[in-house]
Amino acid sequence: MVTVQPIHAQRYSRGAILFHWIIAVLVLVNLWIGIVGGSMSAHKAIGISVLALTIGRIGWRLGHAPPPLPPEMASWERTAAKASHVLFYVLLLLVPLTGWAMVSGAKRYPLDWFGLFPLPYLPISSSAAHLGHELHEVVGFGMAGLVALHVAAALRHHFLLRDGVLSRMLPGARAVR
In angstroms, rounded to a whole number, what is the distance separating the alpha carbons of residues 53 and 33? Predict the structure, then answer.
């Protein structure tokens, strides 16, 4: 006998949850380093890690559909959820790529992955690197704003709406039935 979970009780796959939380922690650490200060060597290596993990996450996502949104969600909420997820993927690619471009044009600073192996510079001009620098700051602050909005929406679903949306992505949480 096959048991079918109600739509609101379905969870993300373990792989999706793992990608989500590893990338989330790395993004938060890198936002802290980028805004407050810290090791730029670690900042660059974490950024490259986010880029690689995001590519992996997109590949995972193509083969593993997310659970459907709760049917009681308003259409504007569905649109906002889908748009914010697309924007997250764009920023998760764009922020590290603009940082990589910024470092590549100057070639004044070593680029390696946590000191374990060197990473190649992108073949770009110094003017493209300058554009990368400007864009990196803008999209970095955009990422910070989107993270804040995402956390606020998750907390709204959990504490105000109590609809189980957050539990679908929490490691070890049970789906709301």
Answer: 19
